[in-house]
Amino acid sequence: MLADQLQPARSPLQNWRELEEACEKGWLLTTQQVYELVGSKPHGATWERGAFIFTKAGKIGREIAWEIEKKV
User: Fold this and answer.
1) Phi, psi of 48 (to 5 degrees)
2) Which terms are listed as keywords in the entry (predicted)?
3) Domain boundaries, the chain
């Protein structure tokens, strides 16, 4: 608990920056990684959240891999 108090507050926009970087670099994220950044798990073949579109792109280990695109 003390360690949480010592860490500076994380910007609420940081998660969106990380999604944008993954999008720009063509990185695939697992369902768990998307959940940690967005706060809910993607579902269906294509899923939209905020300014991003997530599309199923195979598997990473036992999890679904998601390709990320930014809405225009």
Assistant:
1) -110, 140
2) Plasmid
3) 29-72
